[in-house]
Amino acid sequence: MLYVQILINGILxxxxxxxxxVGFSLVWGVLxxxxxxxxxxxxxxxxxxxxxxxxxxIHPYLFAPFAALVLFMLGYAVQLTVIxxxxxxxxxxxxxxxxxxxxxxxxxxxxxxxANFRKVSLKPxxxxxxxxxxxxxxxxxxxxxxxxSMLFALVFVALLYWLLRHTVVGRAIVxxxxxxxxxxxxxVDTTKVFAVTFALGAALAGAAGALLSPIFPISxxxxxxxxxxxxxxxxxxxxxxxxxxLVGGLVLGVLESFGALFFGPEHSLTLSFTVxxxxxxxxxxxxxxxxxxx
Amino acid sequence: xxxLLKASGLCGGYGDVQVLHDxxxxxxxxxxxxxxxxxxAGKTTLLRVLSGMAKSTAGSILFADQDLRGLPAQEIVRRGxxxxxxxxxxFAGMTVRENLLMGSYLRGDGRAVINKDLDFVLATFPKLxxxxxxxxxxLSGGEQQMCAIGRGLMANPTLLMIDELSLxxxxxxxGELSKALTEINRAGQSILLVEQDVATALRLASTGFVLDxxxxxxxxxxxxxVANPSVREAYLGMTAA
Lengths: 294, 241
Ligand SMILES: Nc1ncnc2c1ncn2[C@@H]1O[C@H](COP(=O)(O)OP(=O)(O)O)[C@@H](O)[C@H]1O
Ligand SMILES: [Mg+2]
Known about the structure:
The complex is a heterodimer of chains A (294) and B (241). Chain A has 294 residues and is mainly α. Chain A has twelve helices and two strands; from the N terminus they run H-H-H-H-E-H-E-H-H-H-H-H-H-H. The two termini of chain A are 35 Å apart. Chain B has 241 residues and is α/β, with parallel strands linked by helices. A six-stranded mixed β-sheet of chain B has the order 6-7-8-3-9-10, sandwiched between helices. A four-stranded antiparallel β-sheet of chain B has the order 2-1-4-5. In chain B, 44% of the residues are buried. The interface between A and B is medium-sized, with 20 and 24 residues. The complex binds adenosine-5'-diphosphate (ADP) and magnesium ion (MG). Magnesium ion binds next to helix 1 of chain B.
């Protein structure tokens, strides 16, 4: 029963992880930019949700779409004004650029929000579903806040999937991902597609930040942790595909839960990077193999 | 017939490397024109310059009496030139139907008209209709070329440019594709065809241009080019009689 409980915890975590990673993966896949800013975008989304809840009483789950919207606009602006200038440069240049921007944003948040940890404490707390209440033989619990965060996170991931598959913008993004040259021949404006893609990545980061704000403590420097997770998930699931991020997120969530059981929760990051290194050695294209897109 | 496309004095290439030198080429409305020349002559580069995918440094590209030179690629598609690239370059992971619809990406004339064009493409290439919901990367070489041409047609272009129609295809398939192109042309489509297989090219086209190291060295009606001793020797593998 303990193992089933750990598995449930892992899956709950995994859905949220998928949402954390999918925007990062999209930007990497389509723009070939490793966006170091992604973790900071998540933290910003979490702060926005925190102040929306403490200041205006807006529930983080309701606020998530607004966090996504704000980050979408920010992402669009950052792409058009800064990243677009270096987009044709080698990946190291764009990586350094986003690294610099991340330092800027992190320190800005440090100044504005101060370094102390904050947490959205939902009042009243959402509590847990105790399965043994209804099935006396099943001794399992499901924390409602984590369940809700996971479900909303999956909704955002599904929305992205739908957008990529069924809208004109989405088709253009996928076309650029598959073959930039051919997409241009179809009349796709790659500059615009890059900006929209980057904005979408930021929007998903914002949503993820809002959704994790009731669960994880928020601090201006937490971005690195989320970035690291997004990185591992991309390597796990394969780059630039929604399904890859989903699988990678779930695998990492479950791995971390069991890792916390066997090695203690303080080693979860060590564990994920160990997995990263092993994968880079043995399955460099991810568990799912190299995939085109969604 | 009216001149649809009239390039003159065209120079261009990649970065500091000039590939095209003072190229002149004309396509009249409703005609199939072929551009022939050996490997590395600059045929692909010329098509790229025409479609805005490579830089030109001098000259003019008059299309429907407006100069296209220097316009971005999407504007050139919008004005009515579709470029079917060498190597097909279909979008893997997308179905045949999705690939075809990418061709109509810029069109704002409504779903009904686009669906009519889709029906036309599928009637022209019935094999595509059978594979409509299959991943485009699973198609055979010939089917991929059909899909690439269909995708070009879906832009509803005034001028369709095809780079290397027959590359890597069996004679039977080349025959099928040639028949389809002739049909499309009869329906009024102007075509600029780049082709290594000079015999096929001159059979299909009414006019031909010969490109050699970035310069047009010969041009004229296809029947004259076929009879031209230097064409026969250099490109048709026959010794001058
Ligand atoms: N992307 C490129 N960058 C630099 N040079 C190129 C590029 N593509 C082609 N070239 C050069 O331009 C010349 C013409 O090539 P191309 O237009 O592909 O010829 P063709 O299509 O007739 O075989 C060749 O010398 C080739 O090496
Ligand atoms: Mg070529």
